[in-house]
């Protein structure tokens, strides 16, 4: 599960759109591999255990970025909205726990089809929580997107899987995380937010992970190492993408993770989503892309 794109601003000045898109495609591919590794590991080990080690690697990467920044390290580590930064980082950590619990029982593609509703939730929440104006077209797209989620979940038809509640809760948690990302961007720079994400998340992950310490096989230690590498590489590619293109341009390519989820689910777990899930996922993605287009159009009209 990848960290959602910073909403509202990238934190960097856009320079070259095509390289940014290519970096984004690479990031999505790496994050999809990370999710497949997570699905394998969570079948044998408690999620807090291996997520703790993943977070250690992520925190080390965030610290390295902060130390190499042009700003003094103390300035990078100082936030003007520390409480919001801490809550935001904790939301991301618990989102990862919820994702692992969901993907343990659900197909990889089914999990990501539900998570695709997260940007729609952000749009719905941005009106009451951020005071942003959401036009009727976007509200209509949000409603159609939620209809797509209901198609995937199929409540009342005897096929609803309780584990889908974890994926849905993950999407809700990520939506609030994204809302807080918009809020803290008014006070702190990208590097400060990135550092808080890694360090606070690592602290929470350690508190829970040590209680769930396990003894993986040598092969699974290798997969945990691969999980750490994909986390660092994925975020590196995401940063490079944001250096080269605006978040609004990159957001549609985030949905490629659904394609990768289908491919990796089939290759490694012999999974294929059924027609109903594909239909619901298509409705959610189409609604999300429409919202991205409308938001981009609205931002271009703004003075």
Question: Which terms summarize this structure?
Answer:
75% helix, 13 helices, mainly alpha, globular, 303 residues
Mean of the pLDDT scores? 88
* β-strand amount: under 5%
From the alpha carbons, calculate the radius of gyration and give it in angstroms. Answer: 19 Å
Number of strands: 0
Approximately how much helix is present in the residues? over 70%
What's the order of the H and E elements? Answer: HHHHHHHHHHHHH
**Number of continuous helical runs:** 13
Largest sheet: none
Shape field: globular
Q: How would you classify the helix and strand content by structural class?
A: mainly alpha
Instruction: List low-pLDDT spans.
Output: 7-15
Distance from N terminus to C terminus (CA atoms, Å) equals 36 Å
Walk me through what this model shows:
This protein has 303 residues and is mostly helical. The protein has 13 helices and no strands. It has helices at residues 17-42, 47-68, 73-76, 82-105, 108-115, 118-130, 136-153, 164-184, 190-209, 218-244, 247-250, 256-269, 275-301. Helix 1 (17-42) runs parallel beside helix 12 (256-269), helix 4 (82-105) packs antiparallel against helix 8 (164-184) and helix 7 packs antiparallel against helix 13. Residues 7-15 have low confidence and may be disordered.
Give the helices and strands, then pairings.
Blueprint: H1 17-42, H2 47-68, H3 73-76, H4 82-105, H5 108-115, H6 118-130, H7 136-153, H8 164-184, H9 190-209, H10 218-244, H11 247-250, H12 256-269, H13 275-301
């Amino acid at each position: 599960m990848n960290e959602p794109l910073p909403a509202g601003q990238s934190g960097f000045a856009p320079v070259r759109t095509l390289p940014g898109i290519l970096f984004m495609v690479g990031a999505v591919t790496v994050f999809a591999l990370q999710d497949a590794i997570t699905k394998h590991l969570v079948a044998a080990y408690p999620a807090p255990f291996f997520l703790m080690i993943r977070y250690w690697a992520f925190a080390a990467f965030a610290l390295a970025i902060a130390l190499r920044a042009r700003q003094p390290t103390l300035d990078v580590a100082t936030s003007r909205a520390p409480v919001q930064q801490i809550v935001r980082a904790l939301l991301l950590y618990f989102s990862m726990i919820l994702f692992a619990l969901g993907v343990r029982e659900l197909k990889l593609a089914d999990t990501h089809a539900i998570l695709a509703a997260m940007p729609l939730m952000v749009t719905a929440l941005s009106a009451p929580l951020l005071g942003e104006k959401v036009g009727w077209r976007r509200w209509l797209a949000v409603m159609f997107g939620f209809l797509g989620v209901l198609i995937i979940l199929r409540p009342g038809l005897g096929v609803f899987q309780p584990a889908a509640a974890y994926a849905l809760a993950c999407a809700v948690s990520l939506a609030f995380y994204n809302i807080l990302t918009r809020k803290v961007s008014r006070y702190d720079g990208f590097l400060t937010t990135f550092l808080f994400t890694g360090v606070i998340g690592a602290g929470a992950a350690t508190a829970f992970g040590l209680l769930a310490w396990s003894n993986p096989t040598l092969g699974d230690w290798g997969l945990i190492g691969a999980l750490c590498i994909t986390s660092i590489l994925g975020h590196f590619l995401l940063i490079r993408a944001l250096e080269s293109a605006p978040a609004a341009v990159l957001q549609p390519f985030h949905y490629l993770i659904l394609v990768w989820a289908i491919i990796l689910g089939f290759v490694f777990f012999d999974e294929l989503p059924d027609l109903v899930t594909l239909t619901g996922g298509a409705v959610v993605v189409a609604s999300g892309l429409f919202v991205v287009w409308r938001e981009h159009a609205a931002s271009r009209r703004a003075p």
